[in-house]
Amino acid sequence: MKLQKIISRLQKLHPKEIDLSLDRIINLCKKLGNPQDRIKAISIIGTNGKYSTIQAMFAILKEANFKCNIYTSPHIKKINERFVFNNQELSDEELSNLLENVEKANDNNSITFFEILTAAYFYKAAEYPNNINLIETGLFHRFDATNILKKNLASVVTSIGLDHLDWLPKDEQTVKKIIFEKTSTLLNSNIIVAKQGSIEIISEIKKTISRNTFQKIFFNENYSYSLCENNFFYYEDKIGGLKLPSPNVNGQFQLENISTAIATLRSIEQLNVSGENIKVGITKIHSIARLQEITEGKLKYLVKNNRLLVDGSHNPLGAKVLNEYLESLDCKKHIILGMMANKNHNEYMSYFKDISSLTTIDIPNQPNSIKGNELRNKLNNFKNVTYKEGIIDAIKSIPIEKNDMILITGSLYLAGEVLNLN
Asked: HSE-up of 285 (CA within 13 Å, CB side)?
């Protein structure tokens, strides 16, 4: 209750949820003693794959006996997920005390919710100067609150695509503009660029970061992976090759994220991460709502022996890689879909080619989501589209047969509701 009251107060400090600027966070961090200047960080920037890449790095670093602090957004089930220190989420009491201290320093000045959370993260992280900080950039990077670091160990650029276009001017809603916003102010450190959706995107990234003189490491140019028989895959970079076991996460796109995580950690010589750390670490990745299979609980009980997965993808790039995974499965696929109102709903669903049924639902507790019945009407290109108000009703309504699977997707907020309900 105390934590919720503090969060409610902080959310009222600025009239806008997002107001891209660095002035407010710089001023607050100055009051806090500029804690961001006393940490060792790896910055993760991009559209998709940031969270998964962070979790892969975290798993490997733990095997190498490093302590990590992690800052991600948004949270899935509870806000504590955003604040990991010494490899552990903060408890409600710890987070309440942290936010109260930063709230006091802010002295009721106007600041967005994300900005004050970011300042709080930096303030706490400075207590652990020897820890490795894995910091996920928010909406865009250039004016994102996380972009006040003066130095870091590396910058990771995950896959970039169209998303959050409503925050850009109408005449600048392009991938080129997104690439500029995300990569034009990368720090002078190793830059690791993950697999991208097209040659044009890679070329534009190279152009934007051309003035940065530090080492640039590109997927398929400086590191790569290939699939092997018997559930192994092979990773290779300038240091050498590694035959690795299949990770404990679903989807080939996760191999791309894991490879990027490996390339990043191996590029930072002082970490001295071993091949054995990598081999063991990638089998212990903790990933929430990224092709996560629900294997027990209230919702799993409803589907009995059928597979039930939840995935928080919400943009065309995410839909593309998600469908690639679905196409690798020899079974009927049923999708339950809920999305935010500002997404391109038809483009998102256009990537799914072989769906037995589609059920749209309302996302609980999200006033900015599109109502499920409105979403159903928009997706008139699909033959078998039905609407159910809630998650449980949607699952019960699907006539699943032996070996069929159900996937709940379209929003991280929906994924959080699913996991909490389960």
From this structure: 28
Token pair in block for residue 8: 């409610």
Whether 266 maps to a domain, the answer reads: yes
Beta bridge partners of 405: 307, 333
- Residue 283 CA to residue 232 CA, distance in Å, equals 12
Residue 196 contacts residue 260 (beta carbons within 8 Å) = no
387 and 276 within one domain: no
pLDDT value, residue 168: 63
Kindly state whether residue 138 falls inside one of the protein's structural domains: yes
Establish if 118 belongs to a structural domain: yes
List, as one string, the DSSP characters of 92-161. HHHHHHHHHHHHHHHTT----HHHHHHHHHHHHHTT-TTSEEEEE--S-STT-TTTT-S--SEEEE-B--
- In angstroms, the CA 91 to CA 88 distance is 9
**Whole-structure pTM value:** 0.94
pLDDT band for 16, please (50, 70, 90 cuts): confident
Give the count of domains, the chain: 2
Residue ranges making up the domain that contains 412: 292-421
The mean per-residue pLDDT over the stretch 110-133 comes to: 97
Dist CA 387 CA 268 (whole Å): 50
